[in-house]
Protein backbone atom coordinates (compact mmCIF):
# COMPACT_ATOMS: atom_id res chain seq x y z
CA UNK A 1 0.00 0.00 0.00
CA UNK A 2 1.79 3.10 -1.18
CA UNK A 3 -1.04 5.66 -1.15
CA UNK A 4 -0.47 8.90 0.69
CA UNK A 5 1.96 11.73 0.15
CA UNK A 6 3.70 13.94 2.63
CA UNK A 7 4.65 17.56 2.30
CA UNK A 8 7.89 18.17 4.14
CA UNK A 9 9.79 21.29 5.05
CA UNK A 10 13.56 21.28 5.36
CA UNK A 11 15.44 23.43 7.88
CA UNK A 12 16.65 25.45 4.86
CA UNK A 13 13.02 26.60 4.29
CA UNK A 14 12.37 24.55 1.16
CA UNK A 15 9.14 22.53 0.93
CA UNK A 16 9.10 19.30 -1.03
CA UNK A 17 7.14 16.07 -1.27
CA UNK A 18 7.71 12.42 -0.54
CA UNK A 19 5.71 9.23 -0.49
CA UNK A 20 4.75 8.19 3.00
CA UNK A 21 7.16 5.71 4.47
CA UNK A 22 10.08 6.87 2.37
CA UNK A 23 13.33 8.26 3.72
CA UNK A 24 13.15 11.83 2.53
CA UNK A 25 16.00 14.20 1.86
CA UNK A 26 15.63 17.82 0.80
CA UNK A 27 15.29 18.28 -2.96
CA UNK A 28 17.16 21.58 -2.73
CA UNK A 29 20.02 21.07 -0.27
CA UNK A 30 20.03 17.27 0.12
CA UNK A 31 19.76 17.43 3.92
CA UNK A 32 17.88 14.54 5.55
CA UNK A 33 17.87 15.73 9.16
CA UNK A 34 15.72 18.55 10.56
CA UNK A 35 12.87 17.78 8.16
CA UNK A 36 9.33 18.41 9.42
CA UNK A 37 6.10 17.02 8.00
CA UNK A 38 3.79 19.94 7.15
CA UNK A 39 0.97 18.11 5.41
CA UNK A 40 -0.39 14.75 4.24
CA UNK A 41 -2.24 14.37 0.92
CA UNK A 42 -4.16 11.64 -0.85
CA UNK A 43 -2.85 12.44 -4.29
CA UNK A 44 0.35 13.67 -5.86
CA UNK A 45 -1.69 16.43 -7.56
CA UNK A 46 -2.84 17.87 -4.22
CA UNK A 47 0.69 17.52 -2.93
CA UNK A 48 2.15 19.34 -5.94
CA UNK A 49 -0.30 22.21 -5.51
CA UNK A 50 0.50 22.56 -1.81
CA UNK A 51 4.23 22.52 -2.50
CA UNK A 52 3.99 25.07 -5.30
CA UNK A 53 2.01 27.30 -2.97
CA UNK A 54 4.42 26.81 -0.07
CA UNK A 55 7.48 27.62 -2.16
CA UNK A 56 6.07 30.67 -3.89
CA UNK A 57 7.04 33.79 -1.89
CA UNK A 58 3.93 35.56 -0.56
CA UNK A 59 4.56 38.86 -2.33
CA UNK A 60 4.99 37.16 -5.71
CA UNK A 61 1.91 35.02 -5.17
CA UNK A 62 -0.28 38.02 -4.38
CA UNK A 63 1.10 39.97 -7.29
CA UNK A 64 0.52 37.11 -9.73
CA UNK A 65 -3.00 36.56 -8.43
CA UNK A 66 -3.95 40.21 -8.73
CA UNK A 67 -2.46 40.41 -12.22
CA UNK A 68 -4.37 37.32 -13.32
CA UNK A 69 -7.62 38.76 -11.94
CA UNK A 70 -7.02 42.13 -13.63
CA UNK A 71 -6.21 40.74 -17.06
CA UNK A 72 -9.20 41.81 -19.19
CA UNK A 73 -8.21 39.63 -22.14
CA UNK A 74 -8.06 36.42 -20.13
CA UNK A 75 -11.27 37.25 -18.26
CA UNK A 76 -13.22 37.92 -21.43
CA UNK A 77 -11.99 34.79 -23.13
CA UNK A 78 -12.54 32.43 -20.25
CA UNK A 79 -16.08 33.67 -19.58
CA UNK A 80 -17.24 31.60 -22.52
CA UNK A 81 -15.12 28.59 -21.79
CA UNK A 82 -13.19 27.35 -18.72
CA UNK A 83 -13.77 29.73 -15.80
CA UNK A 84 -10.86 31.97 -14.84
CA UNK A 85 -10.74 30.58 -11.31
CA UNK A 86 -10.51 27.01 -12.58
CA UNK A 87 -7.85 27.82 -15.18
CA UNK A 88 -5.88 29.74 -12.58
CA UNK A 89 -6.03 26.76 -10.23
CA UNK A 90 -4.93 24.40 -13.00
CA UNK A 91 -1.96 26.61 -13.87
CA UNK A 92 -0.86 26.64 -10.26
CA UNK A 93 -1.33 22.90 -9.96
CA UNK A 94 0.79 22.34 -13.04
CA UNK A 95 3.65 24.49 -11.73
CA UNK A 96 6.53 22.44 -10.39
CA UNK A 97 8.41 22.91 -7.11
CA UNK A 98 11.03 24.99 -8.81
CA UNK A 99 8.46 27.39 -10.26
CA UNK A 100 8.64 25.95 -13.75
CA UNK A 101 5.60 25.23 -15.85
CA UNK A 102 5.93 22.98 -18.87
CA UNK A 103 3.54 22.65 -21.79
CA UNK A 104 3.31 18.88 -21.22
CA UNK A 105 2.47 19.28 -17.52
CA UNK A 106 -0.19 21.91 -18.21
CA UNK A 107 -1.76 19.71 -20.90
CA UNK A 108 -1.82 16.82 -18.47
CA UNK A 109 -3.48 18.97 -15.77
CA UNK A 110 -6.13 20.22 -18.23
CA UNK A 111 -6.86 16.65 -19.22
CA UNK A 112 -7.26 15.63 -15.57
CA UNK A 113 -9.84 18.42 -15.14
CA UNK A 114 -11.56 17.51 -18.41
CA UNK A 115 -10.94 20.92 -19.99
CA UNK A 116 -10.75 20.91 -23.78
CA UNK A 117 -10.77 24.69 -24.14
CA UNK A 118 -8.79 26.84 -23.69
CA UNK A 119 -5.85 24.68 -24.70
CA UNK A 120 -2.54 24.68 -22.87
CA UNK A 121 -1.00 26.66 -25.74
CA UNK A 122 -3.73 29.31 -25.52
CA UNK A 123 -3.39 29.64 -21.75
CA UNK A 124 0.38 29.98 -21.94
CA UNK A 125 0.08 32.41 -24.85
CA UNK A 126 -2.33 34.61 -22.89
CA UNK A 127 -0.25 34.47 -19.73
CA UNK A 128 2.82 35.40 -21.73
CA UNK A 129 1.06 38.35 -23.37
CA UNK A 130 -0.10 39.56 -19.97
CA UNK A 131 3.44 39.31 -18.68
CA UNK A 132 2.60 36.82 -15.95
CA UNK A 133 4.79 34.04 -17.31
CA UNK A 134 7.84 34.10 -19.50
CA UNK A 135 9.34 31.35 -21.57
CA UNK A 136 12.58 30.14 -19.97
CA UNK A 137 13.30 27.23 -22.31
CA UNK A 138 11.61 25.30 -25.10
CA UNK A 139 8.12 24.44 -23.81
CA UNK A 140 9.00 25.67 -20.30
CA UNK A 141 7.68 28.80 -18.60
CA UNK A 142 8.41 30.51 -15.32
CA UNK A 143 6.36 32.88 -13.21
CA UNK A 144 7.62 36.44 -13.27
ZN1 LIG B 1 16.98 21.89 2.38
Structure description:
With 144 residues, the chain is an alpha+beta fold. It folds into two domains: 5-43; 58-143, Orthogonal Bundle (Arc Repressor Mutant, subunit A), CATH 1.10.10. The chain is 46% helix and 19% strand. The chain has helices spanning 44-55, 58-70, 72-80, 84-94, 103-112, 120-130, and strands at residues 5-9, 15-19, 36-41, 100-102, 133-137, 140-143. It has a three-stranded antiparallel sheet with strand order 2-1-3, with helices on one face. It has a three-stranded antiparallel sheet with strand order 4-6-5. Strand 1 (5-9) and strand 2 form a beta hairpin. Helix 4 (84-94) crosses helix 5 (103-112). The longest helix has 13 residues, at 58-70. Bound molecules: zinc ion (ZN). Zinc ion (ZN) is lined by residues 10, 12, 14, 26, 28-29, 31.
Q: Number of folding domains?
A: 2
| Widest sheet, order of strands | 2-1-3
Question: Tell me, what's the shape?
Answer: globular
Secondary structure: number of strands: 6
Overall pLDDT, averaged? 81
The appropriate CATH architecture of the largest domain is Orthogonal Bundle
Order of helices and strands: EEEHHHHEHHEE
- Approximately how much beta-strand content do the residues carry? 15-25%
Q: In the CATH scheme, what's the topology name of the largest domain?
A: Arc Repressor Mutant, subunit A
Please report the distance between the alpha carbons of the first and last residues.
Answer: 40 Å
Compute the gyration radius: what is it? Answer: 16 Å
Q: Uncertain runs with pLDDT below 50, 5 residues or more?
A: 75-80
Structural class by secondary-structure content: alpha+beta
The main pleated sheet reads as:
3 strands, antiparallel
What is the count of DSSP helices, taking H or I runs of 4+ residues? 6
As a percent range, the share of helical residues equals 40-55%
Assigned CATH class of the largest domain: Mainly Alpha
What ions, cofactors and ligands are bound? Answer: zinc ion
Amino acid sequence: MSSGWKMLRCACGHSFGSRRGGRPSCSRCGESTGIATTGIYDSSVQLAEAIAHANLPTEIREDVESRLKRGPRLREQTRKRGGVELIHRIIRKATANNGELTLAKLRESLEVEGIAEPTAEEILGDAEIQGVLFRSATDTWRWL
